[in-house]
Amino acid sequence: IYVSAPGKAILHGEHAVVHGKVTSNKAKMALAVSLNLRSYLRLEATSTGTVGVNLPNIDTFLHWNLSELKQFAPSVSGNEQLTLGAAQLTVSVWSELPTGAGLGSSAAYTVCLAAALLCASGAISSPLKEWEHTARWCQEELELINSWAFQGEMIIHGNPSGVDNAVGTWGGS
């Protein structure tokens, strides 16, 4: 599975959205646009008995044996089920977006990760056919991707506005 998501720039209203500040009785609004800079993610099934994460932009390449990860299966909370036998995969992520520059690199990453994992699990379709160069998911699938990407942004940032992951999911402005 190969996916990408754009970064973003907030042209107006960033302070209101990011910091929850407003200067009048108006709602918090911002004008954001997607950039022609993207993050990319490739999710590959393997038969190596490992889970791997490759982040070449930061020179990080990690791999864990599934047999070692199985000890953590009992600690999964809630109703989640951990099926480690099916999780033999490598996730590779690279980006044209600089980190820490306010261009939505973390949101582009969470959008890519959400889309790839949802696609791999069968929760959303795999719209890109072998002969196609670009494809789009339906509105319902995009909303699901966005909701999971927002959860990722919450883990990374604590209390995100939702603007970054929305732009990363839908693009445009």
TrEMBL record:
GO terms under cellular component: cytosol
Example of a GO biological process term: isopentenyl diphosphate biosynthetic process, mevalonate pathway
Protein name as annotated: mevalonate kinase
InterPro entries in the cross-refs: GHMP_kinase_N_dom (IPR006204), GHMP_knse_ATP-bd_CS (IPR006203), Mev_gal_kin (IPR006205), Ribosomal_Su5_D2-typ_SF (IPR020568), Ribsml_uS5_D2-typ_fold_subgr (IPR014721)
EC code: 2.7.1.36
Subcellular location: Cytoplasm
Organism: Tetraodon nigroviridis
Enzyme class per UniProt: transferase
One Pfam family linked to the record: GHMP_kinases_N
One of the record's GO molecular function terms: ATP binding
Main location: cytoplasm
Keywords associated with the record: ATP-binding, Kinase, Nucleotide-binding, Transferase
Family: Belongs to the GHMP kinase family. Mevalonate kinase subfamily.
Record-annotated membrane-spanning stretches: none
Residue ranges of domain GHMP kinase N-terminal in the record: 85-167
